Amino acid sequence: MRAPAKINVYLGVGKVRDDGFHPLETVYQAVSLYDDVTVTSAEEWSVTTMVGGPHVDHLAIPDDATNIAIRAGKALAAHHGIDRAASIEVNKNIPVAGGMAGGSADAAATLVALDRLWALETPDEDLLAIAAELGSDVPFALVGGTATGTGRGEIVTPLEDNGSWWWVVIFNEEGLSTPSVYGAYDLLEEGDHDYRIRPEMLDALRSPQPSGLDVFLYNDLETAAFYLRPDLERTAEAALECGAIMTLLSGSGPTMLAFANDAEDARLIASRLGGRGYERTAVVHGPVAGAHVVAYQ
Ligand code: C5P
């Protein structure tokens, strides 16, 4: 199975809820950076991670039952009341703790892979419910494309999206923990604000030209992430100087995104960024499909 990284082209965050999560209104987009997950029936649960991309820190990934791929497999088995295990191999390209939902992609891919391997034929709504229990971003990794996310991000509604959007992903050496960014957001945020998706943004997404979208690209967590990691603001400035139409924090960061006109522009921006010392970049496009089968043996 192959599952995509996600970005949030819009991320509006409300005041923290009683359960510790924040209400969100977000527009997700699945982009062409993938983790591949292979599952094989086994006596015991295990997970092995191979580094597929240069921007992945191998050491940061747990290889025990705390790994979200194993938690996904166990949750699926428990849902069906079956006592089975599998060995899970993850070929990682999505950065760890990067704000691109790499762990969520692995969980989504594992759910669909084991559902196929064990011929469980789990209804989609059950898979989505199991995914939501695993993490706020996991349902979107199943759905892919472009979609709104509400609730804490787990309620996913696909959007009509006719365009193809090009981005330069600027990786960061060091991960940033999602709870710490939300914590900083709580400290810095003053009063209520309207964090809802504006209808004009959905209109811009429906247009085949990406030209309207740059007006709406926005992430409520950016101030908090810049507060914790001032280097990110400099990265954004550098990307603008290298020709980005706009920059955006990816999810809770620290990955930064540069929005480009087209593929050629994106490659040019990436190459200029390389000349300025930002060598760890990738040119991606979206929307792409959610978790899907790529090989079966
Ligand atoms: O759902 P997930 O496991 O990805 O969330 C990780 C952490 O991120 C949560 O424990 C919480 O601190 C924070 N979070 C949040 N509001 C959300 C999603 C995540 O505060 N909507």
General description of the model:
It is a single chain. The protein is α+β, with helices and mostly antiparallel strands and 297 residues long. The chain folds into two domains: 2-158, Ribosomal Protein S5, domain 2 (2-Layer Sandwich), CATH 3.30.230.10; 165-286, Alpha-Beta Plaits. Helices cover 32% and strands 26% of the residues. The protein has nine helices and eleven strands. The chain has helices spanning 68-80, 102-117, 124-134, 138-143, 178-188, 199-206, 222-228, 231-241, 263-275; strands at 2-13, 24-42, 46-51, 85-92, 146-150, 155-158, 165-170, 218-219, 246-249, 256-260, 281-286. Strands 1, 2, 3, 4, 5, 6 and 8 form a seven-stranded mixed β-sheet that branches. It has a four-stranded antiparallel β-sheet with strand order 9-10-7-11, with helices on one face. It is globular and about 55 Å long. The model has no long low-confidence stretch (mean pLDDT 93). Cytidine-5'-monophosphate is lined by residues 20-22, 24, 135-137, 152-153, 178-179, 182. This is 4-diphosphocytidyl-2-C-methyl-D-erythritol kinase.
